Amino acid sequence: MSTIFTHISKIHGLTSPEKIKFGKEMSQVDSLSNAYLRVDNGRIVEIGSGNPTVNENDEIIDLMGKDVLPGFVDSHTHLVFAAPRHEEFSLRIKGASYEEIAEAGGGILNSAAKLRLMSEDELFDHAYERVKSMILHGTTCIEIKSGYGLSVDSELKMLRVVKRLKETFPIVIKATFLGAHAFPKEFKQQPDAYIDLILRDMLPAVIADDLADHIDVFCDRGFFTVEQTERILLQAQKYGLPSKIHGNELGLTGGVQVAVKMQSWSVDHLEHCSEVEFELLKGSFSKDSGNGGYGGTMPVALPGTSYFLGIPYAPTRKMIDFGLPVVLATDFNPGSSPIHSLQNIASLACTQMKMLPEEVFHAITCNAAHSLRLSEELGSLGVGMRADFLVMKTSDSIKTIPYFMGQNQVERVFIEGQEFFA
Ligand code: NIG
Ligand code: FE
Q1: Residues 42 and 144 placed together within one structural domain of the fold
Q2: Does the beta carbon of 336 sit less than 6 angstroms from any atom of ligand 1?
Q3: 233 and 111 within one domain
Q4: How far is the C-alpha of 325 from the C-alpha of 376, rounded, in Å?
Q5: Do residues 48 and 95 both lie within one domain?
Q6: Nearest ligand to residue 305 Cα
Q7: pTM for the predicted model, two decimal places
Q8: CA-angle at 84, arms to 175 and 181, nearest 5°
């Protein structure tokens, strides 16, 4: 028995042979009109136009002339946190910078202090509500980082919360170990001792309990140096843990260089990024970039952070014109981007970064899926893919998502062919 979704005005984001979209291709959406979808065991088994063949036991769900899109993929979040940081928001309104607040012991350390005091159950309850709301806004795959623990116990606590979220929700959730998010106060004068702690105690414990799918480092001015980043990633490689790193948020600090050298799956932020970095990123997609081509280092832009902190936006227009594939993510966190809807990110990307709605669509679907090496099963709609899709409120939904800023354009969410209810 299968479920057939009928009377779809248009299915957008059909699976293409390459699975990801580079440069100009980002503005060309593969769509099918007057369509239907057949789903079996959570996977798409047929997509067609016109009237489907209906067998006796098939269930029919009439989508009444609406648009269908693949579920959105949020490849960069910090959604396990104890509390908002609106005191810092007010300080920044009065003129303090993100870096000044961090220097004074606020920022990530503020979140770490609060998280240490919160029980695992309470952290889970908060994170549960956030994930639920994100799904209702169309996000059907989420990457979640640790990094507000900064001690063995608290980092493991955060990652166990992510594990519970994975077990609780039907969507795909991936965990990233970000012990190298900031230096705890007691290590400020001896930073390498903190790297030792990460490598000697945290990483082996994370691996032993199978709590992470990737590793991340905040490689930037005032945080982790390129050398420290490389040391951490080299050790992670020994465990076979792929990396996705924070880089070039605060300056041209070598984040792209180390990411490409270490074959990271993505380098995220890139508010500072020049043609030197563009060339390196482009080269990472060539077949002779190591291991016969490792799939490249995807550039991930986080416009919510630029908006919220008042820092430059990543030059994604130039990146796309240069031929790069671009990803957009929320960076959902209490310090630099308290934005959890990729629809709002889409709007910022259009108005502030001059990306076209079609480019944004690929940046939050198939390209985002590739940055998690998941584009073989999600991020587009085709035979064999997971049946994770959205029924939209309006027609022309790709254009209306960024247009109606702050309004949820998603009417219904299906995960593995089953409707998701809050
Ligand atoms: O991606 N830049 C580093 N980490 C987060 C911010 C974390 C925080 O301020 O709590 C980010 O923006
Ligand atoms: Fe981040």
Answers
A1: no
A2: yes
A3: yes
A4: 16
A5: no
A6: 1
A7: 0.98
A8: 45
